[in-house]
Amino acid sequence: MVSHEDVLGIARLCKLYIADDELDSMTKVMDDIIRFADTINNASEEGAEFDNINNLSNAFREDEVVPSYDREEILKNANDVDEGHFLVRKRV
Amino acid sequence: MAEGKIKHYSDMLQKKEISCTELTEAFLSNIESANKDLNAYVTVTADTALNTAKAVDKKLSLGEMLAPLEGIPMTLKDNISTKGIPTTCCSKILEGYTPIFNATVWEILSANNAVLLGKTNMDEFAMGSSCETSCFGGATNPHNINHVAGGSSGGVASAVGGNIAVYGLGSDTGGSIRQPASFCGIVGLKPSYGAVSRFGLIAYASSLDQIGPVTSTVEDAAIVYDAISAYDKMDSTSQGRRGEPTALSIKNDIKGMKIGIAREYLDGVRDDVKLSIEKACEVYKSLGAEIVYFNLPALKYALPVYYILACAEASSNLGRYDGIRYGYRTSSYKDVNEMICKTRSEGFGDEVKRRILLGTYVLSAGYYDAYYKKAQNLRGSILNAFKDAFKNCDVILAPTVPMTAFEKGNAISDPIETYLTDICTVPVNIAGLPGISIPCGCDANGLPIGMQLIGNTFCESTILNAAWQYENAVGSEVFKESPYGVKI
């Protein structure tokens, strides 16, 4: 059974606010989904394990410096920039 | 109907029966009128399209031969990065974001002078089955605009089904190409995991996502797949296409081909859909194929496994949206933490928040073993079950969706009910297999029914061939033209 506290605790972890008037409905939906997800606990795992899809192996490459994206171009998408940096409000 | 639209338009261009500019203008003018009903496009790129058209016309005037996709008007789902063109994932949180690089698939197609008409609608971050979680409102079905186009690639399917794009690229994480293709009466191919580069595809669930073609015919799907399936060093999971181009082998005889039916795929499927699948079996028998029935009990757990894994990966992938480097940022906040929390809470829609919360829950201490780890292990069981099945058959035939397109507004009322509509499509993503949806009939209200052909890993040629043979055999019997769009 998913509780209000569970939802608020998880929301803190993933940096989401749940408004007071959303809490009941979000808790109910989460509880429904978790009950649905719980059905996997009826399954036998015997012999089952998963590494990756299609036998992929690590894609190693030489560590070479190659041209990258232009700093000014990257910063054009930011809300607040200063002297070539992303700007965020002072924390302390 | 087996004649592909891509070849049709390409021949017209090459024979100078129409100029590329005229063809492009015809599509742009039809988008202007039809999009009011279909809401398929969220961005129209008329200037880009006409500039490309001019370049193609110049080549034609010099007597040069066109490549198969050169000059063909098309569209991209709005989660495929396009340099200099807004890419929103239909989410408020990507408001104002314009990529500074191209997705590899668009790099390939634009180098081939593909005429980009615009970016198409989708469920927010590809999370949904009706296109209605889009911040722009959902795309509608070109066969009945009171019904949804499906999701998440609803806009691409609506545009292709509504003849306002010749073809498009969508992405498929749990059925997002095949399900809207089924609802809109067209063809949707989800390639094997790794066949098409994901570089520049804005991630939902990286181990399940795959880009693929949405087209009017099977031949078109083969042509587009051949163009985009190439190894890409920018995607560490890329493998590219194996073997010859699929377009070369789609017209091969299928006598003796073993078509498997897993009984579990037919559980809970609506009667008219089941009947269409049975009729398709008869068509295949008449073509000399053999139908073999078998059980695939592991499918029972595919849907919860999918939602646990997809949401876990989404919660991690969507952690990057913080309002600092791109996209929406909240207007008032006290400190950095509040800025990030408010930005995310205001920027994401309800379905995205639900999936981030679920994903965080199944990955959190105390629940990881019971949900995430167990689901990963069951993913292995499902994969092995498919491998065993392919020892006894060449392709698996199944419904794409257990029903036809639902009425607008019905999908978002109950998330679990909506998740259940993905039951036939998610196993393919879990196992990394290729799957194609093609039309196989209509319901009593004239809405299309789709069927799915599933192949073994990297056996795109086999499913495209089986799909083409069916399409060729039934002709216009199961295909329905939408009243919208360009018909030249």
Summary tags:
heterodimer, A: 92 residues, mainly alpha, two-stranded antiparallel ribbon, 2 strands, flat, B: 488 residues, alpha/beta, Amidase signature (AS) enzymes, eleven-stranded mixed sheet, 13 strands, globular
Topology (elements, then pairings):
The complex is a heterodimer of chains A (92) and B (488).
Chain A: H1 4-13, H2 20-37, H3 71-75, E1 81-82, E2 85-86
Antiparallel strand pairs in A: 1-2
Chain B: H1 5-14, H2 20-38, E1 41-44, H3 46-61, E2 73-77, H4 104-111, E3 115-120, E4 140-141, E5 144-148, H5 154-161, E6 167-171, H6 178-184, E7 187-190, E8 211-215, H7 218-228, E9 258-262, H8 271-286, E10 290-294, H9 302-317, H10 336-347, H11 350-363, H12 368-389, E11 395-399, H13 415-420, H14 426-430, E12 435-442, E13 448-455, H15 460-474
Parallel strand pairs in B: 2-3, 2-6, 9-10, 9-11
Antiparallel strand pairs in B: 1-3, 4-5, 6-8, 7-8, 7-12, 11-13, 12-13
Helix pairs in contact in B: 2-3, 5-6, 7-15, 9-11, 9-12
What do these coordinates show?
The complex is a heterodimer of chains A (92) and B (488). By secondary structure, chain A is mainly α. Chain A has a domain of 38 residues. Chain A is built from 3 helices and 2 strands, in the order αααββ. Chain A has a two-stranded antiparallel sheet. In chain A, strand 1 and strand 2 form a beta hairpin. In chain A, helix 1 packs across helix 2. By secondary structure, chain B is of the alpha/beta class. In chain B, 38% of the residues lie in helices and 14% in strands. Chain B has 15 helices and 13 strands. In chain B, the strands form 2 sheets. In chain B, strands 1-3-2-6-8-7-12-13-11-9-10 form an 11-stranded mixed beta sheet, with helices on both faces. In chain B, helix 7 runs antiparallel to helix 15. The longest helix of chain B has 22 residues. Chain B is globular, with a radius of gyration of 21 Å. The model of chain B has no long low-confidence stretch (mean pLDDT 95). Chains A and B meet through helix 1 and helix 2 of A and helix 9, helix 10, helix 11, helix 12 and helix 13 of B.
